[in-house]
Amino acid sequence: MRRSYLDYAMSVIVSRALPDVRDGLKPVHRRILYAMKEEGYDWNRPYRKSARIVGDVMGKYHPHGDSAIYDAMVRMAQDFSMRRQLVDGQGNFGSMDGDPPAAMRYTEARLTRAASEALLEDIDRETVDFQQNYDETTYEPTVLPARFPNLLVNGAGGIAVGMATNIPPHNMGEVIDACCALVDNPQISDEDLLPMVPGPDFPTGGIILGRAGIASAYRTGRGSVVMRGRTHMEAYGKDREAIVITEVPYQVNKARMLERIAEVVREKIIEGVSEIRDESDRHGLRVVIELRKDAMSDVVLNQLFRYTPLQTSFGVNMLAISGSRPQMMTLREVLTSFITFREQVITRRTAYELGKARERAHVLVGLAIAVANIDAVIDLIRSAPDPQAAREALLARDWPASEVSALIDLIDEPGYVVSEDGTYRLSDAQARAILDLRLQRLTGLERDKIAEELHSLADRIKDYLNILTSRERLMEVLRGELVDTRDRFADERRTTIEDSEFEHDIEDLIPREDMVVTVTHGGYIKRVPLSAYRAQRRGGRGRSGMSTRDEDFVSRLFVTDTHTPVLFFSSRGMVYKMKVYRLPQGTPQSRGKALVNLLPLEEGETITAFMPLPEDESTWNDMFVMFATSSGTVRRNRLSDFTNVMANGKIAMKLAPEDGYLVGVATCNEDSDVLLATAAGKAIRFPVTDVRVFSGRNSTGVRGVRLGRDDEVISMSILRHVQANSEERDAYLRHASAKRRAEIQQDESNGDRSEDVPAENSSLQLSEARLAELGANEEFILSVSDDGYGKRTSSYEYRVAGRGGQGIGNLDLSRSGGSEARVAAAFPVSLEDQIMLVTNAGQLIRTSVDGIRMAGRTTRGVTLFRMGEGEHVVSVAHLQDLDSETEEEAEAEVEEAAEAMAEPEAEVDDEAPTGSDDGDTDSSEV
């Protein structure tokens, strides 16, 4: 099997899939062109049925299916596939829309002039080797004597076994100029050679972006060329514009491109397009994309380049057969191989023509001798009994050659010279020519013609000998033929090259704006301008914030900038990356768009965590990412591990069924602490350094908190590390408690239930400077229960413990009726922040943090949201560093929901947990 497969693989590589560097053709193309030449289907002859050509090729040279032969011939006839067509087709040979060609019985073809005179010229002069065909009944050429580097001019593409080639087409004039430069100076540097071939020249035109990929392809044989269609703007109507596409990238199916444009418009990936029309006809390509009045044409055009085949890349892989083996070749190597091949062709052709010229001159010398001795020759022939005797008599006699000795010396034929006595012995060929001589050649005019032809042949023989003995003369002939081919068949460049390596960043055209990104329990996402929501004081009833149906409800939301990159972490442990401006924009009441239509999520996969990132990726190297799951495990990675996230996502964390789901992903550094809060009112704080940096992304991490029964982690926060001992923290809290007592008493007089920070038995007195330092580093943890209560607590009350403990009490969850609430959220806040609370009924309220009272760690807090029967908080969003709106903006009402919603499923358990732990113990104290 190994031997058989290797034989098959080598056959595919050498004899089927890869082109020859000399003529740039695969065997099937070479056989088609040779068969057409052999049958006389030249450019100046009538067209012939394609079926007849295919039959000749299949019957003589190519033992494969007729469809393979016809498809290869069709491509050579397509002006949008070949830079220089080799087959002149008549009929339907396909289109750029991917339409198939007509059947071979309906189409006709013949060779183009370029194929006949530049690829097949001199093939009958022993310029190339021939081999037996597959059934050994005839011979076929192993290569065509191409006069131009067809491998570069028309390009090639093929997939062999274990290797593939993909060579773009080029401009014939530029490639031949580069060949001439190599002929003139074989030691020319790449810096001087490469500019002569600035880049590929595609038959469909278009634009190439940048030169780095071209330079890489020419220097190494591999590279990527970014292609872009040619477009321009046209005004129509009143204050409206249209994008007109007149050229598409090479090998792009125009019909599929239009389908993709319509798809991204329909899915609102590209917004602002009102109509798409294909106005292409026999005169050229024209696609019109009409824009809406409010659309920005530059943004839409750049989005078309990004999301549709209007911009694509061509992966250059210059692999060809050289010396009977596949080889990755640079531009210089391809041109050098072609020049070497042309030297061989010209040498073999010259030797062939020299032999033919000497054969003719040899015959003419015999005729000249016969004419000079015409009387004796006639007497000899007249006296001979038969032609055989006359020929033998001519061969047996020495003929005087004094009159033609100068001509004999002129042609310089080896072995045939005038003897010392001035005689010449005729050869058999000369004797036969004399016997075949017509009487009219004996006239004086004909004798002069013989002498003139001899002189002409002598000059040609001398030139042939000069070519064969002088490399300088040989290269002169080679260069002259290249220039002649260029002048006859080269045309202007169609593809332009722009120096700009990258497209204009469409983010520069998108205004910066704060957006509220909302995600529903059912997996719908949208972005809404923050200005669409009005601020309210705590304790309000809120407004309808989103239309929910099918038992769906808002589960998560965060506020960020339109230019912010966001990582989406899924329940499957994958991470996806998307900029905020690419998310669908909606109104506060709209449902948004399903995440499965934006990200390549598998069936059953949901997005469980989101992480906005810094825009400047250079800052990612010194940052870390902390993961936390609902089962209490944590893991730390470097943020740079998630720099390159492809469109199909990247593995972020390996999650087993018992690991639950991701509840938090946040950036951190080694001077930070991790705060994990659970639904049962527990919290644990430990240093980031307690979690080692994981080098891989497939691990599950380590334990962060030990959970009780029916408990789970609901949030993870990153805090500044506490730079003080327990006595200093207690003294600071006692000092801060006295300052806040007036505020607390005022809130209690309004009926809110709270308690003061418990006094500690400590006599430590802190200086004003130390108090100021501790106050500057103080953070506040906002904890919210699902029944609408919340409070702010100093982060100093959450002492730093070891990773993996049970934690300490965070929130008093007891309520009337004996049942217990659950913690909905816990995260650090500042006085300038705001929060948004969403209930399972779709009600939403936005309020400022400075209106929420400071309270102790184990207290219940104050009322934040008054809810109806059976209603509870399902999501709390943190709005950081937001400017408060004016009173006039606060007067604006959010529109009521457009559709009636069904009762949503409860996501949080409202029942009291069975069993409890001491609120102030952790594993470090047990």
UniProtKB/TrEMBL annotation:
Belongs to the type II topoisomerase GyrA/ParC subunit family. GO terms for molecular function: DNA topoisomerase type II (double strand cut, ATP-hydrolyzing) activity. It comes from Fodinicurvata halophila. This is DNA gyrase subunit A. The gene is gyrA. Residues 734-762, 882-926 are annotated as: Disordered. It comes from the Bacteria. Residues 18-509 form the Topo IIA-type catalytic domain. Few gyrases are as efficient as E.coli at forming negative supercoils. Not all organisms have 2 type II topoisomerases; in organisms with a single type II topoisomerase this enzyme also has to decatenate newly replicated chromosomes. The lineage of its organism: Bacteria, Pseudomonadati, Pseudomonadota, Alphaproteobacteria, Rhodospirillales. Keywords: ATP-binding, Cytoplasm, DNA-binding, Isomerase, Nucleotide-binding, Topoisomerase. It is found in: Cytoplasm. A motif (GyrA-box) lies at residues 536-542. Its EC number is 5.6.2.2. CDD domains: TOP4c. It holds the Pfam family DNA_gyraseA_C. It catalyses: ATP-dependent breakage, passage and rejoining of double-stranded DNA. It is an enzyme of class 5 (isomerase). Signal peptide: none annotated. The active site is at Y106. SMART domains: TOP4c. InterPro entries: GyrA (IPR005743), GyrA/parC_rep (IPR006691), Gyrase/topoIV_suA_C (IPR035516), Topo_IIA-like_dom_sf (IPR013760), Topo_IIA_A/C_ab (IPR013758), Topo_IIA_A_a_sf (IPR013757), Topo_IIA_dom_A (IPR002205), Type_II_DNA_Topoisomerases (IPR050220). A type II topoisomerase that negatively supercoils closed circular double-stranded (ds) DNA in an ATP-dependent manner to modulate DNA topology and maintain chromosomes in an underwound state. Negative supercoiling favors strand separation, and DNA replication, transcription, recombination and repair, all of which involve strand separation. Also able to catalyze the interconversion of other topological isomers of dsDNA rings, including catenanes and knotted rings. Type II topoisomerases break and join 2 DNA strands simultaneously in an ATP-dependent manner. Heterotetramer, composed of two GyrA and two GyrB chains. In the heterotetramer, GyrA contains the active site tyrosine that forms a transient covalent intermediate with DNA, while GyrB binds cofactors and catalyzes ATP hydrolysis.
